[in-house]
Amino acid sequence: MTSEGDLVHDPWLTVVDRDGVQQAVGLWEALSQAHTIRRLELPVHTMLPVVLRQMLLPVVIDALGTPRTRQEWSERFDRGRFSEDERDRLAHYLGPRYGDRFRLFDPERPFAQVACMEALNGETKSAAQLVPSVASGNNVPLFSALSEADELLLTPGEAALWLLHVHCWDTASIKTGAVGDPQAKSGKTTGNPTGPLGQLGVVVPTGQTLYETLLLNTPILPDGLEPGDRPQWASNERPAGLGCMSPAEAAWSARPATGLLDLLTFQGRRIRLIACETKQGPRVHRAIVSAGDRLAQTPEFEPHTAWQHTAKPKKGQPHRRPRRHTSGRAAWQGLGTLLAMTLPVHSDGPYTSLLLRQVGDLQGAGVLSGRYPLGVETSGLEYGNQSAVVENAIGDDLPLPVRALLAQDDWLREALLECVAQADQVARALDGLNNDLRRAAGGDPLPRDKGSRPSVQFLHGLDATMRRLLAGLRTVDEDDEELLERAQLAWEQSVQIAADREADLLLAAAPPRAAVGRTVKNGDKEFVYRSGKATGVFRSKLAGLLPRAAEERRVQREEAAAA
For the residues 6-21, what does the mean pLDDT come to? Predict the structure, then answer.
């Protein structure tokens, strides 16, 4: 990479093309060849929304504008690539107009940074504070390959990715006080929120190419962008040649987003990267991370999150709040939220993301094929200790039948949600069997928050089956009831096999005294626990939860008896 870190032309972003070949490209090549790129190859799941929001999407939207109608969106999507006119406008945008704003080490206007920003105590910190998986300060992850005393050298490309990641996902820990920030006290800033994405359960629709993914993540805005809405690199129009920004520009404020572009590129921190020269070229080894702008409230035009609607919120609280992902649950277990196409106006409940609602609307209008191979990537971070450290990263992807997103037609959505509910209910039945066997052996049931539960292994074992089901149902039509019924039967049989396997393991591990069992008094009532009784109750529950599989077994038994 060049000495100034030219993100437009220098190869720094790893992509995978349609032939499965990896290569590093610059911003211009990533956009101009977006139709040949299958996906971005990024270090962590939480990085995809970062690159889309902080760079690719706002460049495209600011340069070309948003589609104002379904027809305009359809024309762009059906073309499958940027037109020659659009390529020329992107080239101008990333060249004469704003090309100098995408230089990582520019002495006057470094990308997504505050030039010449200094800490009140005059110190800098290791670049490790940019990477959540590396030990730094109070953030001490398990199995980190480096300690805080080790020097971390980031290539310009790595530094650019983690710089944007900090803007979006940084912890709420105490930040270095910057010179010129009137709200810094005793050399630091406290009371910081997490980065804007840290408060969301991020949902990103994905297509077959990067170009399609960009369109799927572009909202249709009938009135266009808000007046004065600009991305962060275009918000400061001061002429070049004036030297570093003044210290006062390190100050931050709590404010609402002025529009979509401001929201996507929101500067959640004030940052300055410090590079050193090595034999391999420039490397970022130190950084200053200070408090940045605070998003007053997640606006309802936020495109990348599902919502929790509250019919009667507390005074001063909004009706809708971003819905975060739950750690330990696969994305398909949250289909109830992803497929919640109708706002529960008079009750509390989930409401899917703006972009997935838009996909459903486009399919309903005949703009997007019901057989389109849509994908969804989910990501999030779990914070601990007052959100000052990262405890867990959440990331998953899954195929999603577009027809399930039709608001006015719920036949496929109901079938999918039934499958998810069956898995959850059978998982609970397995945990109930485990607890009954523990009681029969003289023990106590597992506390809710402790111990290894059979449901975890059971649900993990169903993961590949559910993904095959979702991929297969992409091509099912409404009038193909037989195919849908066969798919649901195959699902129930898979659930039955997985549940039987886990139940057999539990029974094999139960001690002999569980067969004799014991009687437990609870008030005036007595309960008898034996392994045989527990197994019978479990089998009965399973038959009720999986009726198609139970009926198929009954028919097979009758046929075998008749033969």
Answer: 95
Residue with tokens 């049931």: 445
Segment 525-549 mean pLDDT: 90
Q: Which two tokens stand for residue 394?
A: 């959440």
- Using a CB cutoff of 8 Å and minimum separation of 24, what contacts does 12-19 make? 12/155, 12/156, 12/157, 12/160, 13/40, 13/51, 13/157, 14/40, 14/41, 14/42, 15/39, 15/40, 15/41, 15/210, 16/40, 16/41, 18/209
Q: What is the DSSP secondary structure assignment for residue 6, as one 8-state letter?
A: B
CA-closest candidate to residue 299, choices 226, 361, 359: 226
SS3 state at 513: helix
Does 505 or 448 have the greater pLDDT score? 505
Q: Tens digits of per-residue pLDDT, 115-154?
A: 888 888 888 898 988 998 775 555 555 445 555 556 889 9
Is the pTM higher than 0.70? The answer reads yes
Largest Cα separation within the chain, whole Å, is 93
List phi, psi (to 5°) of 261.
-65, -40
Q: Which helix (H) or strand (E) holds 394?
A: strand 389-399
Q: pLDDT for 449-506, tens place per residue?
A: 777 889 999 999 999 999 999 998 888 877 778 888 999 999 999 999 999 999 999 9
Nearest to 13 by CA among 35, 30, 33: 30
Rounded distance, CA 328 to CA 346, Å?
Answer: 31
- On the 0-12 / 13-18 / 19+ scale of CB atoms within 10 A, 208 is middle
Q: Is 237 exposed, middle or buried (0-12, 13-18, 19+ CB in 10 A)?
A: exposed
The alpha carbons of the chain give a radius of gyration, in whole angstroms, of 27
Confidence band, pLDDT 50/70/90 cuts, at residue 407 = low
How many other β-carbons are positioned within 10 Å of the β-carbon of residue 521? 8
Q: Which residue type, as a one-letter code, is found at position 105?
A: F
Distance of CA 497 to the CA centre of its chain: 31
CA–CA distance, 504 with 500 (Å, rounded to integer): 6
Q: Residue 247 pLDDT > 80, yes or no?
A: no
Which strands sit side by side in the sheet containing 125-126, from one edge to the other? 125-126, 281-291, 269-278
CA–CA gap between residue 438 and residue 133 (Å, rounded): 39
For residue 248, which of 355, 354, 116 has the smallest C-alpha distance? Answer: 116
In whole angstroms, give the CA distance from residue 499 to residue 179: 61
Using a pLDDT cut of 90, give the percent of the chain over it.
59
Q: Which of 335, 321, 290 is nearest to 113 (CA)?
A: 290
- Whether the pLDDT of residue 327 is over 60: the answer is yes
Long-range Cβ contact pairs of 440-443 (< 8 A, separation 24 or more): 440/510, 440/513, 440/514, 440/515, 440/517, 440/518, 440/529, 440/530, 440/531, 440/533, 440/534, 441/510, 441/511, 441/513, 441/514, 442/513, 442/518
